[in-house]
């Protein structure tokens, strides 16, 4: 096993990636026996991985049902966006002129979201947009912040999954991501900061409206 990670580490990372990718949706049961077979791992190893996901706020235990992928609510949305503002806006404020590789990573995420939109794969659109915002946090050049924000992204993915019409929810953000990138390329940090601030305000408001809608209860 490479990189010094244990099997439980790898399973945790893979399950988290499945959540970020929209393959594990809120309310989905994570059955120990199935995971033992899927990962050729012991029950103790699977339990350790599920425990870590619980610590990260991605799963929860339900008596007589076991471990399930977490369903988040309005309070968690507000908290997540407080974290996003703190990290993403600070990343832009503190950023140096955008390097070519940083721009390339952002463009790759934007173009992947564009292709997903053309395929009408709306979950993938949301996932790639979140990747773009991971690259914004990456401007802080902090592995600790990168790791922390990956968990934030996984929770945001669970929030997005609550949208009854994810196509309508995801449609507005792609061009706004591209606009933020272009401002960063131009060296307009103030413009990028304002555009991202408005973006986060609007995204949070739309999600809160979603959770306040009777169909979400």
What does this structure look like?
- The protein has 217 residues and is mainly alpha-helical.
- It has two domains: 2-69, Orthogonal Bundle (Arc Repressor Mutant, subunit A), CATH 1.10.10.10; 74-216, Up-down Bundle (Four Helix Bundle (Hemerythrin (Met), subunit A)), CATH 1.20.120.
- The protein has helices at residues 7-20, 32-39, 43-55, 74-93, 100-118, 122-138, 143-160, 166-170, 173-185, 189-212, and strands at 29-30, 59-62, 66-69.
- The chain has a three-stranded antiparallel β-sheet.
- A hairpin with a 3-residue loop joins β2 and β3.
- α1 crosses α7.
- The longest helix has 24 residues, at 189-212.
- The radius of gyration is 18 Å and the shape is globular.
- The relative contact order is 0.13.
How would the global form be characterised? globular
What is the third-level CATH name, the topology of the largest domain?
Four Helix Bundle (Hemerythrin (Met), subunit A)
Number of helices: 10
Widest β-sheet, arrangement of strands: 1-3-2
Biggest sheet descriptor: 3 strands, antiparallel
Strand residue percentage: under 5%
Rg estimate, integer Å: 18 Å
Low-confidence stretches: none
CATH architectural arrangement of the largest domain? Up-down Bundle
What's the number of structural domains? 2
Oligomer: single chain
